[in-house]
Amino acid sequence: MNLATIIRNFNTTPFLFLGSGITRRYYNLPNWECLLKHFAFEINHDDLTYSFYKNKASQEDLKYGILPKVAELIQIDYEAKWFKDPTIRHVSNEILADIRDKGISPFKAEIAQFIKDNSVLKQEYVTEVGMLAELSVKNITGVITTNYDSFIENYFTGYVKYIGQKQLIFSPIQGVAEIFKIHGSIEQPESIVINEKDYDNFERNSEYLAAKLMTIFMEYPMIFIGYSISDTNIQNILGAIVQCLDENQLKRLEERFLFVEYEPAKKNIEISPFTIMFDGKPLTMKKIVADDFKPIYKALGEIKSKLPARIIRKFKQDLYELSQCSSPTAKIMCAEFDDSRINDDDLVLSIGKRSDFGVKGITGIDGSDWYRNIILNDLQIPADELLTHAFEGLYKQYSRKLPLNKYLSEAHGEYPECMKAAREQRFDSIISNTIKNGRCRNKYKSVKEVCEQEKDVSKAALAMAHLTEAQIEVDALEEFLKEIFESQPEILSTGKSETKTNIRRIIRIYDYLRWGKELLD
């Protein structure tokens, strides 16, 4: 049985289902039990503390296994100490404020901080992780994970992330270039599923989650990495799926489910069939035992989609939005759907660069495209065409707040209306009186300082707007904005209203400082 042959027989690129073993491998992060041991030790600095909680938990009703109960007991005592003892507080001032004002659990906030602080790539796996990152472009459809850490989104750029069950259940997922963090994420500490109450809430929605994941499980091959086959989390999720399937459907999964199990010092990959029973119903899959994952990633490289996963998702999302509103959008140009001159058999969808569609396509550009292009220059449309065909509508739509200096500096023609609008948006005009008046309370003195201390994108962007013109290093601001769009390319479309406002403001600042000062003086 050859791994490359098994993967080549997949009908499409697979999903990855990632467990804690993947980040124990690459980041050396602790497993669930070791994480709880760390926080138990923080309570009274005694190595036997965790054993105390485990023994206590074993005497109680264990609805979801012992670890959620242990976590619940540790959380109670840890938080009681946390509020009294500042020496065990490691979170930022921003998170401290959220704990105070929003009631975020200190235990979960400290777990998130601990994982962030210890998420460092081990040098011996740089090549292996690089191979995995390359697969994200055309060889992986999406990712499901119970991990809290940010490993996968750090290396799978351009993927859209859904945190927790609620986002997954209530969002119009496209099933491609998406990361489903079903047990929460360190970005949102309250989303972390770790104690009995969390698991109780998770269990209440498990049927909805199973239904949402069912299409993915039935349509795509699934590769499980970083789990033990006996792992409670994976058993519960698979069990919920299996109970919904009949014998023929379970048979379909057999050739498309691969379970990768790590075994130290394993010289060659071992492949064998493996069956798990769920209330008398068998789920059979291929089990791969390996020490080195590079051959597995190399084999996955043999099957790829013709377009990058992020592009396919973008296209599906735009089609979905188009189907909801029945009118062309910024990303899709089309004829009227009820045009009697067009037969259904004649309808054609075309994928290509926006610039290939000419001037008609430009009128569909939205504000997020216009703003993002200031930083990434990804529209590939001449500045003259943008100023001629897209400026007027967007300028009105965005209440006369639109970055123009980059386009004016690149244009060959003269655009007096655009130039007039640009002159009305100098540095002092971009910054509101509220922000100007709040500068006296701003503790930062440079863009780099903000980047080092503010990890939340929206708050960092707002803090930068509080800097004086002299304090803003244009190159550092450019680097910050590029990092935002490279990791979250759709943030100006899908982000929170406050986040979008803050980012657009500093793009206008950047546009003025980079091109406007010279152009307008």
Strand proportion, as a percent range, falls in 5-15%
The CATH topology of the largest domain: Rossmann fold
CATH homologous group name of the largest domain:
TPP-binding domain
Major sheet description: 8 strands, mixed
CATH architect. name of the largest domain = 3-Layer(aba) Sandwich
Radius of gyration: 26 Å
Architecture overview:
This protein is an alpha/beta fold. It has three domains: 3-28 and 121-300, Rossmann fold; 32-117, no CATH class; 354-521, no CATH class. It contains 29 helices and eight strands. It has helices at 3-8, 20-26, 32-44, 49-58, 66-82, 93-102, 106-117, 126-138, 151-155, 164-170, 196-204, 206-219, 232-242, 247-254, 294-300, 309-325, 359-362, 367-376, 383-389, 391-397, 405-410, 416-423, 427-430, 433-437, 447-453, 457-465, 474-487, 491-494, 497-520, and strands at 15-18, 142-145, 160-163, 178-181, 222-225, 257-262, 270-278, 281-290. The protein is globular and about 75 Å long. The relative contact order is 0.09.
